[in-house]
């Protein structure tokens, strides 16, 4: 197994005593970015804290991406720019989730910090929450934010729940807009890959103007963005439009666990022995007979010189368990997934404010946005175990004769049904967001105070339509054909009476339109989801008094938040106890309990929760002299009361020390952070199954219980302990323009929400006390006893590592007329350990596992040279070599016994990657700038990420699957 590397910095325990917060105050979630007084440019607003005051430096590490950085990256979606930061790991984007049928996350742009998942990263817009865009993640879609009005994006790398509330376990990403933008600007961009696909077009415009002597200000932004996406590949190993890197890499099982050789072997061109493109007989005396596209039989070409054993088990000598290597791979389906979803975005944003006086304003914002995406998760439908009757009229005579000769009446066959239209997933998200608020300052007891109050209402409509899905029972009936009165019909008379149309699964004969309509109804799988979010918040900050080292700053406030959702699904997937409507005619073959589709099978659901929160934060100067430097203590606490999950508390204690040495500062934070269960965790769509004769171990009796799979309303908040310690060197006297920072982080998450066991196991865990959290998931004493087998609070996660950042600004380098900016950011993840917390399970280590989201090292290097006329930017994105899985024991001979927890494998390596991007701009005049960008300049192919099947064996969360990409555009600024 892989040996976990030690950190470059280690925590030797707590370096500072942590202060206990006395009492609890009502807290708020107002905007992070307080309105900055126009006459006081020294006020610093820091997303990592709620303190708004002069000279404040938050102890939590924060990386800012400026408007200039965003422009230099020339990405049509700012999400792509931000996810290149090393601390963002495992985010969801347009190149991920494309192989998914039912998640609804296609084209979803949501951030994940520290590899902890998008649900543990809080994303804000001007310090305010945004209604989630997906019920499963509970996270917003940042592609729906107004991009052209952004001033910067702050990424807080550390727990921030005490300041901002639930979900900020990994950190916070805050989008900061230009609230007083004046003028007109626009951006027009086009792009496409070196393969001529994923053609892109982007049009953005923003306008801002003041009226009534500057008291009334309004700013508008509109945006339209379209990407064609990358079409799915075909069956076999042919990727889209000439990409040649796919090779069906697979970890095949030798079936031998204790003979000194590895149990698993890493191979390319794996070939399943359970199906072929046009049909393969997989067991019995006819095993090894395949069919061509015309339905003619021939002897299948097995890889590895495999020889079918013609037994009931379907064994093939010379091959591995389920796979051969080489041979006829034309039926492989992995590359048939869309590499990048097609996407169309449109966005409208307006902020209008009115100054009541010099110090106070009222405002409202409106954000109307829409995203449409579509993808193909796989080609055809893999059907590896079909039973075909020898009397089926579609069976060729030569095969019927062999059936008779071998005294069999049926045979097993596998096909990928290339004759059926492939699945197409269409996902549409619409966002309506309204905010009304007031902010400014007032004087009380001779002191100036800042305040911010707002009310936000957000609504998200999500529609998922999955076209061309098979109804499983109808397919089974349709392939069982017979001859009646000279016509080929479905053999089942009940199926015939309800519209069954026979189909031929041998070869590639396109079924009739009526047959396809019977199998893949026009009104297929869908789920319509409405989510709403209402937030009312108020906060106040100021400097109420001073101590020996300077003024004490305080921020406090209160927030009320309510979230609600409702999902409605099609009757085929959800099930119904009432007659189907005209689009869903009654059919005895279909289950009224739902689950009828090949995939998808969405369910209805609804639920809501509300929370009242409170926070109080202090910044206390402890030292302030030339001899000792400046030492500040930052303390915050937050209390949360959820209508569902109960009470939760978050707190932090941090210190910053600006040393007497020029530019050198130390910082540390210890915090407790919270993620409360979201709507999907608590009330996600569920399926219910009655379990008769269920044993109640508490009473040693049996009863009938309802097993509810999908969610758990008894979940409690996750609790994380966060620690960071680091040093910052900023613009020292001896090297002007140079800055550097190094920060060690350590996160321990307890009571993590993860998939639970089955009903019997769950009740037993509670009974024997091995998993106390299991006790909240069932009730066997009520009138309607139930067991919720969704998620439970049982898992734990521990991760640690080091962040690095270095930058240098050199005006007139080597005497040239320009400015050189160098910047490097890197994150080293030393460990990422997940403990399931259930009996019989073991911890897993995923740091350095390049099949996942947390490589050992991830880095970003940027070099920009700019003059008043032009600029050039060179960027390198790099992550280190890694492994497929840390659980494997690597060996080629003399291997130990292979186990399920630690299987043996001959090759566990996955190469890292370096992607070089090149960009430039030219000022045509003072109002117009032309620019270009080339991503992945050297067209580096993705590394294979082999699994134990022949799916899409690449990892788009880390690797570039698109190839070289060209962008060009014009920016206008008047």
UniProtKB/TrEMBL annotation:
Keywords: Cell outer membrane, Membrane, Receptor, Signal, TonB box, Transmembrane, Transmembrane beta strand, Transport. A motif (TonB C-terminal box) lies at residues 957-974. PROSITE patterns: TONB_DEPENDENT_REC_2, TONB_DEPENDENT_REC_3. One of its GO terms (cellular component) is cell outer membrane. It is found in: Cell outer membrane. PANTHER family: PTHR47234, SECRETIN_TONB SHORT N-TERMINAL DOMAIN-CONTAINING PROTEIN. This is TonB-denpendent receptor. It comes from Asticcacaulis benevestitus DSM 16100 = ATCC BAA-896.
